[in-house]
UniProtKB/TrEMBL annotation:
SUPFAM superfamilies: PLP-dependent transferases. Keywords: Lyase, Pyridoxal phosphate. This is Glutamate or tyrosine decarboxylase. Its cofactor is pyridoxal 5'-phosphate. Gene3D superfamilies: Aspartate Aminotransferase, domain 1, Type I PLP-dependent aspartate aminotransferase-like (Major domain). InterPro entries: GrpII_AminoAcid_Decarb, PyrdxlP-dep_de-COase, PyrdxlP-dep_Trfase, PyrdxlP-dep_Trfase_major, PyrdxlP-dep_Trfase_small. One of its GO terms (molecular function) is pyridoxal phosphate binding. The modification N6-(pyridoxal phosphate)lysine is found at residue 232. PANTHER family: PTHR42735, SPHINGOSINE-1-PHOSPHATE LYASE 1 (PTHR42735:SF6). Belongs to the group II decarboxylase family. Sphingosine-1-phosphate lyase subfamily. One of its GO terms (biological process) is carboxylic acid metabolic process.
Length: 484
């Protein structure tokens, strides 16, 4: 194949993907709406695509780029003289490292205690922290949130702090509902108990300083670390986040170094060895070009669009905004019998991607409703009237549909299942019974989301893993390229 033929085939593979630009995909991607940003990022990334950030002594340019990105984040987010930072592959890795560092600190302080340290986690905190607890063997202590404001309550945190608590997490803002947790109050409680407090500002850290939404960053007493993504509202390509740490000693808890093999000495500040320098270079270039004023302007544009959206939603039948969104994330719940899972499908049919979020039962038995998540970017700013018009039309259509109901036989059978004992073949059989027989996913996903919500959580998680397990199975061997 010629290079042009290869690229044409690669481009054809994207035919079924949601659009990454234009503001209609309201999850997963962040579009500045500026063609110059895309061009600059692509050229900077290409210039460093072969550079290995594993060894900054071999590639000192990478060390300069990382130091500049960390310095910019620290200056924006209240860092002090002792603040240090690490550039990671994304928000999940930043959160993983924050938990790993806190676990290392707890173990060093409790050398004779062989119990699992605890991670105090609001139920609205990002799932990356649950992944961290799974990987690094911490016990998650769920902290419920106010069912109306969806913010974690300081009194609930205070009641659950113990000698086993290794880390407390708060969100700025939370991903599910876009609300800002009471960072100052909870950080003060954590500090009084001698426990680190991590602020997950992965999605809001490059926005909130430009919106004057209140204290949330490293300038708040008691905040020990903070994560912020540059591939979100830093408008860089995917693969760049920063973990800031107020105390250099705390950062040492997630570093790895070994000279215990015959090869070269290995020192890694992140989970990966080989690290991609291209996304770092792209983030550096975009930051240098946009500058503080450019980011402030984009933040204001996205926030203004969010305010217009929230105001206009009052006229959309059957939906209500959950909580008080402080940045550019909005969660919609259904009212008057409208099911937001149907609304998501109706909006997909109209060319929009809104992210369904199932209902959730909190530790105290209270329920958070099913919602739709919308991420507003600068590229959405000119499309708010069209979005509202399509939402109103989709809401009327969704209101005419019966509530999605999973097969009662499957739900009853799942109640007696031990998900840990299920084999791959058994999961395949259950998925086939649910109508997911390995072919393309159904056009309407509301019944699938309803099934997930109805199943016991461990069973639902096992089946969801099974769905992706099937997606990542080649249907046939990849043919070799034709002879030249």
């Amino acid at each position: 194949m010629t290079p042009d033929e290869v690229l044409a085939e690669l481009t054809a593979l994207t035919a079924g993907d949601v659009p990454t630009h234009g503001g209609a995909t309201m999850a997963y991607v962040y579009d500045s709406g500026l063609a110059e940003v895309d061009r600059l990022a692509a050229e900077a990334q290409a210039a460093f695509q072969w550079t290995n950030a594993l060894d900054p002594t071999a590639f000192p340019s990478v060390a300069r780029i990382e130091d500049d990105l960390v310095g910019a984040a620290a200056a924006l987010l209240g860092g002090g003289p002792g603040t240090v930072g690490t550039v990671t592959s994304g928000g999940t890795e930043s959160c993983l490292l924050a938990v790993l560092a806190a676990r290392s600190r707890w173990r060093a302080a409790h050398p004779e205690d062989h119990c699992r340290p605890q991670l105090l986690l609001p139920v609205t905190a990002h799932a990356a922290f649950r992944k961290a607890a799974h990987l690094f063997d911490l016990a998650v202590v769920d902290v419920g949130v106010d069912p109306v404001s969806c913010r974690v309550r300081p009194d609930d945190v205070a009641a659950l702090l113990t000698d086993r608590t290794a880390l407390v997490v708060v969100s700025a803002p939370s991903y599910p509902h876009g609300v800002l947790d009471p960072v100052a109050e909870i950080a003060a409680l954590s500090a009084a108990a001698g426990v680190p407090c991590h602020v997950d500002a992965c999605i809001g850290g490059w926005l909130l300083p430009h919106l004057d939404a209140g204290p949330f960053d490293l300038s708040v007493p008691g905040v020990s670390s903070l994560s912020v993504d540059l591939h979100k509202y830093g408008y860089a390509p995917k693969g760049v986040s920063v973990l800031l740490t107020a105390d250099p000693e705390l950062r040492q808890g997630h570093w790895f170094a070994t000279a215990g093999w015959p090869g070269y000495p290995v020192v890694n500040p992140t989970l990966a060895g080989t690290r991609l320098a291209g996304p770092m270079a792209a983030a550096w270039a975009v930051h240098r070009w946009l500058g503080t004023e450019g980011y402030a302007r984009l933040a204001r544009e996205a926030r203004t669009a969010t305010e217009q959206l929230v105001a206009g939603l009052a006229a959309v039948p059957g939906v209500v905004v959950v909580g008080e969104p402080v940045t550019t994330l909005v969660a919609l719940a259904g009212t008057d019998g409208l099911d937001v899972l149907h609304l998501a499908d109706e909006m997909t049919a109209r060319g929009w991607l809104l992210q369904p979020q199932p209902p959730f039962t909190q530790p105290d038995g209270s329920r958070l409703p099913a919602t739709l998540h919308l991420t507003v970017t600068a590229a959405t700013a000119g499309r708010v009237p069209a979005l509202l018009a399509d939402l109103a039309d989709a809401a009327r259509a969704a209101a005419q549909l019966p509530a999605p109901a999973p097969d009662p036989g499957l739900v009853a059978a799942a109640a007696d299942l031990d998900p840990a004992a299920l084999t791959v073949a058994e999961v395949d059989g259950l998925l086939a019974f649910a109508g997911l027989d390995g072919g393309p996913l159904p056009e309407r996903m509301a019944p699938v989301h309803a099934l997930v919500a109805a199943l016991p959580r461990p069973v639902a998680e096992r089946l969801l893993a099974g769905v992706l397990d099937r997606v990542y199975r080649p249907t046939q061997p990849v043919p070799p390229p034709p002879p030249r």
